């Protein structure tokens, strides 16, 4: 158990990103108030603040369909994080609503079992669009496509997620979904303060909406 938990040198904790389940169990045993930010674990009862990943990815995929794309791949290792899983589910939902196929060969891994990025491998049969789980991966996909002679978006459209710096330094600038990180931060701190004051959080799970951002990659 970490020293700061044993000695109770903090009054509350915010865990950001994917945390090992054993570590979360230790936090629960400590009795300290804590919140999860940008992830959840179905096996552990813990209050969390999340981005609306499923709806965001649904909107991105729906946009691609509305612009005439029909063969749409997803880039992301869905078992790596709960965020990627939810973004994949939004992608699948949009395809199913449009009666388009969800093809296993168009689910493209982007990281290994440790969560470390791996080189992207383009499928043998190329799609006409890639929904990427984050802007950094989308940036790498765009660069790979250009090296292979594809034009973005004329030949292949690419979308990111988060609206971080990769979306604007990309050439062409990237269509993405903006995560409202400021509101997520405000909400998770407010929720933790309520718990530290022995009040119940406003809700066990708070989902913060984002915004679709269209740029030149689609």
What's a concise summary of this model?
The protein has 218 residues and is α/β, with parallel strands linked by helices. 35% of the residues lie in helices and 16% in strands. It has 2 domains: 3-50 and 181-211, 3-Layer(aba) Sandwich (Rossmann fold); 53-178, Response regulator (Rossmann fold), CATH 3.40.50.
What does this structure look like?
The mean pLDDT is 94. The protein is an alpha/beta fold and 218 residues long. The chain folds into two domains: 3-50 and 181-211, Rossmann fold; 53-178, 3-Layer(aba) Sandwich (Rossmann fold), CATH 3.40.50.2300. Helix 3 (53-66) runs parallel beside helix 4 (82-97). The protein has helices spanning 3-6, 21-30, 53-66, 82-97, 135-147, 166-169, 181-196; strands at 13-16, 34-37, 48-51, 72-75, 107-108, 129-132, 157-159, 176-178, 205-208, 211-213. Helix 4 (82-97) links the parallel strand 4 and strand 5 (107-108).
Question: What are the salient characteristics of this protein?
Answer:
transcription; 4-stranded parallel beta sheet; Peripla_BP_I; 218 residues; 7 helices; elongated; alpha/beta; Rossmann fold
